[in-house]
Design brief:
Layout lengths: L1 H10 L9 E7 L2 E3 L2 H8 L7 E4 L6 E10 L4 E9 L6 E3 L2 H7 L5 E2 L10 E4 L4 E4 L3 E4 L2 E4 L1 H7 L6 E6 L5 E10 L6 E5 H6 L7 E5 L1
Parallel strand pairs: 1-14, 2-5, 6-10, 7-10, 11-13
Antiparallel strand pairs: 1-15, 2-6, 3-4, 4-5, 4-8, 8-9, 11-14, 12-13, 12-15
The structure holds zinc ion.
Amino acid sequence: MLGLLLEMVKNNGAENPTDNKIPVGISNRHVHLSKTDLVTLFGEGYELTKIKDLSQPGQYACKETLTVCGPRGAIESVRILGPVRSKTQVEILKGDCFKLGTAAPAKLSGDLSGTPGITLVGPKGSILISEGLIVAQRHIHMTPKDATSFGVTDGESVSIQIDGLRGGIFKNVAIRATETSSLECHIDMEEANAMDLNPKSTITIIK
Ligand SMILES: [Zn+2]
């Protein structure tokens, strides 16, 4: 019991001004495009139009949207997030898999090995990507300094606790620690709705 109390005191110390609460970022389905695919879908020389900065430095939501087409159905107005990346990646919700008629694995952004492809339709063309369709695996962005403060390491998998009437515990939340990260736990809309989270909610890491 004393050990637990000491741990609580330590965790709530001045070293961590966030009081162990981590803000939540809720993502809807979205697409990251490669430069080549941007040209095919929007035309030669096209540049993405930023409409809103996202919490992670350098990332932004664009005015442009695409239609994502699967064998069973299509989803229109899927937001593009900038800037362009080395590979096109389509992040959908689990429920979208049923509408599209395709299965997407839960993967961390950038880990596209073994993922299925999908068709994307833009105003000037369409492409069938051979891989890149994922359901984003929940994760927490932080700096290495934050990681030390929380007692976690980059790549580690932790559980998070969500308070409230519909609260609970999500397991398998990946720690992503880089120098340019802003502290935020990324979950998708379905996960957020399941536990009644909103953009002002916070979560706590438990191990
Ligand atoms: Zn993220």
